[in-house]
Design brief:
Number of strands of chain A: 5
Distance between the termini of chain A: 48 Å
Largest interface: A-B, 38 and 38 residues
Structural class of chain A: alpha/beta
Radius of gyration of chain A: 16 Å
Shape of chain A: globular
Strand order of the largest sheet of chain A: 3-2-1-4-5
Number of helices of chain A: 5
Oligomer: homodimer
Order of helices and strands of chain A: EHEHEHEHEH
Amino acid sequence: MTVRRVVATGTFDILHPGHLYYLSESKKLGDELWVIVARDANVKHKPRPVIPEEQRLAMVAALRPVDHAVLGDRTDMFRPIQEIRPVVITIGFNQFFDQEKLRKELAGRGLAADVVRIGKYADGDLSSSRLIIQRIVDVRGEGVQRGG
Amino acid sequence: MTVRRVVATGTFDILHPGHLYYLSESKKLGDELWVIVARDANVKHKPRPVIPEEQRLAMVAALRPVDHAVLGDRTDMFRPIQEIRPVVITIGFNQFFDQEKLRKELAGRGLAADVVRIGKYADGDLSSSRLIIQRIVDVRGEGVQRGG
């Protein structure tokens, strides 16, 4: 039997339960979850990540639902997808891909992957790297830092 | 055969490779890794955590080396250890327990656990919640926030 690979993608700057939810739900759609972690240089639609790409990769790879994590290609986002050949590609609720456009682009490259959008993780947690960063700036942005 | 449990402890505010190293090394010392995550109210030797205890617990529990994660006791740090009955308790390189004192306290409560200090994770990563928080304050502490 062929292993059904699922691909999830993202920046994964400061890990939070929203990431876990996205990855766990993605994993359910196949046998093996592959995660493509965005390169620092390719994050352009929001501020550059705080955590460097190699560290973001290491942390995502350590999460239980994740079977393999790789860094994205510097110039062609479809290259790792062509290598992984997933049956499903998942999109997070706040990732602004056009699902139809993505499906067509995949088909044009001979990739038959289905594109599935994962819903929002609804919880009162700090489930956004942006919110965690904002909270840090709010509560620790003044005065001397100490602790670890 | 008895399952040899290992207990690791910590705050685990913003997860980083130093945590992963501590937990992976701890896991090697037995069969099952149990992690006791500090309650918000019990973090007194450094600034209060940015991430609430339930979220810190959920994120630690999602790391591959971790078999079980629990919150610490509000008043008696030895209570969960008495329940888990580990053969080894590990201490991180920057946790300021006195190993000898801890061994004696454990023995006094009929707990025969060995106490092992895990070395420092040596790498150029942002391997400290404090360093990550400081970096966030430095690079994002001014101006309007956006992104996710």
